[in-house]
Structures are given as structure tokens and as C-alpha cells.
Amino acid sequence: xxxxxxxxxxxxxxxxxxxxxxxxxxxxxxxxxxxxxxxxxxxxxxxxxxxxxxxxxxxxxxxxxxxxxxxxxxxxxxxxxxxxxxxxxxxxxxxxxxxxxxxxxxxxxxxxxxxxxxxxxxxxxxxxxxxxxxxxx
Length: 137
What we know:
Elements: E1 5-10, E2 30-37, E3 39-42, E4 47-50, E5 56-65, H1 69-79, E6 86-95, E7 100-108, E8 117-118, E9 126-127
Parallel strand pairs: 5-9
Antiparallel strand pairs: 1-5, 2-5, 2-6, 3-4, 3-8, 6-7
């Protein structure tokens, strides 16, 4: 179908206003705020998502025409160090108004080390990484 969309979940440096926002090779149809279950770790000056944990990771759901999916994967795989640094996974996201969306995201593919600090959740169990996040070591 010509109107089909694909979704990508960005939780770190690919979000709007972050250092790699300009790495997206296409303009999105829309960008929605949303979340997915998991935990977030401060790896260096970037975060790593793990799909286990009791919290929800807050990010952005970028929507694109399906015909752009391969171009997006080609560029983002290189940006994210796929498959060695990050794996590519399909996750269940939820928009802020509760709508479910399945999206592709990049999951940290290395063991969590003592030098990696878990990004703390707020009182509602939500974890949000910003480029201004301090190292929690």
C-alpha cells in the first residue's frame, strides 16, 4: 500500500535536538513522543537500551513512508555500529496517549560493565536520556 508507514524508536543521540539528529537520511512524516519497556544505561557520551527492566524508556517514534525503510536501515545501521555495538530489534512502543506502535530500535549489544551507570527512572518509572545527562558513576 502506498500509504504504509514504518516506525523507528529513538531514545538517545538520534532524538530531535541531540548530536545525531542530522543522521536521519529522510524527513519523517511525523515524530511522536512515546516509550517502550526496558532499561537505559549511560555507556559513554551515549546511552544503551536493554530490553529488560521494570521501567519504561521515553523517546521518540519517527514515522516514515515504508518505501524509505531500506535507506533508513542502511544509514542507521552504520551510525549505530550494527551489529557489533547495537542489534536491531522490533519493539512494542506506546505513544503518550496510549496508542500502541511497533517500531524498530537499536539495542545495546555489549555486556553492562561496572563503569556503565543505569539512568534513573522518575517517580512514574519513566527513564529519559538527554545529551545533558551526567555520568552517574
